[in-house]
Design goal:
The complex is a heterodimer of chains A (about 300) and B (about 180).
Chain A (H helix, E strand, L loop, with lengths): L2 E6 L3 H5 L1 H13 L2 E5 L15 H18 L2 E4 L2 H16 L1 H11 L12 E3 H9 L1 H7 L8 E5 L8 H4 L9 H8 L3 E3 L17 H17 L4 E4 L2 H9 L1 H8 L7 E3 H8 L17 H11 L1
Parallel strand pairs in A: 1-2, 1-3, 3-4, 5-6, 5-7, 7-8
Helix pairs in contact in A: 2-13, 3-4, 3-5, 4-5, 6-7, 10-12
Chain B lengths: L20 H6 L15 H4 L2 H5 L5 H10 L2 H5 L12 H5 L6 H14 L5 H13 L7 H9 L10 H7 L4 H12 L1
Helix pairs in contact in B: 8-10
Chain lengths: ~300, ~180
């Protein structure tokens, strides 16, 4: 069965996390998931929710209405976009009065939201659509020597009542997907805690302390890499790792990979193909472990 | 923005209290269940930000809102520290959407013109390009060499039309012009 999705890139991915997009597109293509580009784009609205809920609703609804015209479901790389589009679709579908208010805005650019589009994060597509079996079958170079830690982050799981995916207190989806590559996924303290990204710009100090706390716990279990599925979490741990090391006199050297990069390696793609060169933290030691494991 | 003593230790004056504030909030989307809070402290003890901030305490913010300390809570810098991780919302034994109450309070603060710069910048970018960040031209061009399809374009004109009448944006735009 071939599946087809509208890919919703969001803002953070094209802004500074292209390694995620490159690896996700390669992996999805090989697994038979076809991606169609959004006809036009605007931010999902989440960044402005703190200052104007109304703006967020309109921006999200605009994307949903654009997607409805294509008749395709949305696939996002960013859990923030996925959470927002899901939440807004649900809210507006259930609240007729609010839907009419928002539709009055959309009408200005000839759009209307009906509430028919489903949004899925890439992790959901991988588990629900592609399935673990197919993923395991696609693995040609099992990463059996590798021990990693996972960080799912918040918005793929919370608020539970709205998202309804996995168990936010003890999520298993990413762990299972990691294990499908042959790697071991380690447990660590406060695995479900926030990376701190949303507080950047308001208090960098607090935000970086959150990320540092997580990196400390990941280091404690001697993980050889940290696996993320969110561009913002990735920025916090990869882009900011050196900054955190300097700021708090710590040494981590923990590579931070997008899950599609890890899966891509197991599927036989090269680090170059998977845009490892875009990562900040040196991955050579980890890649050596994999190489020795395979040989 | 610095952390201030938003949850000020100054004694509360009766004149500061807006007795209707909690009812106003109870009618707003997201803070409907505010009155159910009995100050158990689950939100604060499970809050990842509260661990590293000396001032951010969701329980305190909820109590201040219930008490009607409208000006104090809306003027507090601390309000902006919430990372919206929704742990408090998921764990509140009273079913209060704590993170959403904080969002409602932030929205009210924004209506008064209290908006941290980061949000103003993002709003301006969205109106200009559709994207929340100014994506460097170099990155857009680099996509081709990276084997990526062209970046979907925003439609600023239509975005503007759609957002017509949204007070927050009209206000920040006006300020931007004056600045």
């Amino acid at each position: 069965m071939s599946s087809k999705y509208l890919i919703f890139l969001g803002c953070a991915v094209p802004y500074r996390v292209s390694s995620y997009e490159i690896s996700a597109r390669k992996v999805l293509a090989k697994l038979g998931v076809e991606l169609v580009e959004m006809p036009e784009f605007n931010c999902c609205g989440l960044p402005l929710d703190p200052v104007s809920h109304e703006t967020m609703l309109i921006l999200a609804a605009r994307n949903l209405a654009l997607a409805e015209q294509t008749g395709l479901s949305i696939l996002t790389l960013c859990p923030g976009c996925a959470g927002t589009l899901k939440k807004v679709n649900k809210t507006l579908k259930e609240d007729k009065e609010l839907r009419e208010q928002i539709n009055a805005h959309l009408k200005e650019s000839g759009l209307e939201l009906k509430g028919t589009v489903e949004t899925k994060h890439i992790l959901q597509v991988l588990t629900e659509e592609v399935g673990l079996e197919k993923i395991k079958n696609a693995v040609v170079k099992p990463l059996t020597m590798l021990k990693v830690a996972e960080h799912v982050g918040c918005h793929l799981l919370r608020p539970k009542e709205v998202i309804g995916f996995d168990d936010p207190e003890d999520p298993q989806t990413l762990k299972k997907l990691i294990e499908a590559t042959g790697a071991t996924c380690l447990d660590y303290i406060d695995e479900t805690e926030c990376c701190g990204a949303p507080s950047v710009g308001v208090s960098d100090k607090v935000a970086l302390q959150l990320a540092r706390d997580k990196l400390n716990h990941v280091k404690m279990v001697e993980a050889q890499a940290l696996i993320t599925i969110c561009p913002f979490c990735h920025i916090m741990f990869d882009t900011n790792e050196l900054r955190i090391e300097r700021m708090f006199s710590e040494t981590y050297g923990i590579p931070v990979l997008h899950y599609p990069q890890l899966l891509g390696l197991a599927m036989g793609m090269t680090p170059e193909e998977l845009a490892f060169n875009e990562l900040r933290v040196d991955t050579s030691k980890m890649l050596q472990v994999i190489k020795e494991g395979v040989n | 923005m610095t952390e201030n003593t938003a949850t000020s230790k100054e004694p509360i004056k009766a004149s500061e209290i807006d007795p209707k504030f909690k009812y106003e909030l109870s009618r707003m989307h997201g803070s409907e269940k505010l009155l159910r809070c009995f100050q158990c402290g689950t939100c604060t003890s499970d809050c990842p930000v509260a661990r590293f901030s000396d001032t951010y305490r969701p329980r305190t913010i909820i109590r201040m809102a219930q008490l009607g300390l409208k000006e104090r809570v809306l003027n507090s810098d601390t309000l902006w520290l919430c990372a919206a991780c929704f742990t408090c919302t998921d764990r509140c034994p009273q079913g209060i959407e704590v993170a959403s109450v904080i969002r409602v309070l932030r929205n009210l603060a924004a209506e008064k013109g209290i908006v941290p710069q980061v949000f103003k910048d993002q709003a301006a970018c969205i109106l200009e390009s559709g994207y929340a960040y100014k994506i460097p031209e170099l990155r857009i061009k680099k996509r081709e060499t990276q084997g990526l399809p062209p970046l979907p374009k925003g439609n600023p004109e239509n975005i503007r039309k759609t957002l017509k009448g949204v007070k927050f944006l009209e206000k920040t735009e006006k300020e931007g012009e004056q600045a």
